């Protein structure tokens, strides 16, 4: 079969070149968007009197049939037709005859492919916002169930101060909330129409770009035709947003993996989300968070890959830009997989409250509070810090915790201690003392949950 662009050629394309340059094996994923864009384009050609109404109707009918065949898996794509755009155009011409060749009037594959990508990512953004909300809901659900669960809070992975487990989970709700906002914000840059830019300079036909934009639900059209066909910022932005989501998922994954270890035993992931070992019968492995952590690498890779493709490209379109697709599709699939699994995995996770409590009772994470107690008695904080440091050292030497010390033992380190310190040192008191906006006190965390829930409800 001859090429749609075969006119100026005297030789057949080398078979290997055909395979090397074709994108149909992956851009077939854009079939729906390609037809959607073509339908709007041809409708506009009719409205502008560029094509007669009957041709427009014939083309539309043909496009619908081609799309139906694609949906049913009946259309065989061919590498010699290079990409989804030419495969569809070829199928259209096969279906309705030479009139199908009028579809490409006033258009280039350069503005066509950019339009397809905008349409594609627009859908994905909506989908990912929904998935992030589901994950937030699952985290909030666990937070509500753990408003009385106290767990060591860490810095440097060393026990620092006790916190509510709910507070820890709500930190992730905030992170995913920013991810969600970033995606929503990117929508205004994705929802811009490139079509009408032609190959790079616009077109000689009296097209109506704003009409096409309106038909396709785009808020704006690209201001500059060169920019319209050269811009892949919107994909970079999506890949960057996806990278941050994966960063957050990966941090949470790491914690889930640690927490489900025998050393921690803070949580147990549901059997449905774990796998076993082919040799060690006792094993229950947290494969899902491990894989999410691992797959974060490829999502970063796709971002850096596209940035690198673009960094020295002269305007306008260059074939290099075809390399924007596989990484984007891969990132979409990777993110879909991770987010779809994470929400139910969090929702079904068992929280081992007793084990967390045991950990809290066996640490010095209440040391700051007892220093603050001395400050309340008028001791400068730096001196109080020194006193408590010595007290902790004594405890370590005696194999005791602060709450095990008698008042006499305390008084060896400062006369300012009195028996009120035992109340101050209770984990509940330590947590509730952090009663600042955004802090871990139960009142604050409950309010934070309330705010997060109303943000979700109004989204
Ligand atoms: N498959 C191409 C791509 O994804 C479509 C645009 C081709 N344009 C061209 N001038 N060869 O980039």
UniProtKB/TrEMBL annotation:
Reactions catalysed, as given in the entry: 2-(N(omega)-L-arginino)succinate = fumarate + L-arginine
Superkingdom of the source species: Bacteria
Subcellular location: Cytoplasm
Pathway in which the depicted protein is active: Amino-acid biosynthesis; L-arginine biosynthesis; L-arginine from L-ornithine and carbamoyl phosphate: step 3/3
Annotated Fumarate lyase N-terminal domain residues: 7-301
Gene: argH
This protein's UniProt keywords: Amino-acid biosynthesis, Arginine biosynthesis, Cytoplasm, Lyase
GO CC field: cytosol
CDD domains: Argininosuccinate_lyase (cd01359)
SUPFAM superfamilies: L-aspartase-like
Gene Ontology biological process terms, A to Z: L-arginine biosynthetic process via ornithine
HAMAP family: Arg_succ_lyase (MF_00006)
Top-rank EC class of the record's enzyme: lyase
Domain (Argininosuccinate lyase C-terminal) ranges: 364-432
UniProt EC number: 4.3.2.1
One MF term in the entry's GO annotations: argininosuccinate lyase activity
PANTHER family membership: ARGININOSUCCINATE LYASE
UniProt record similarity statement: Belongs to the lyase 1 family. Argininosuccinate lyase subfamily. In the N-terminal section; belongs to the lyase 1 family. Argininosuccinate lyase subfamily.
Protein name, as recorded: Argininosuccinate lyase
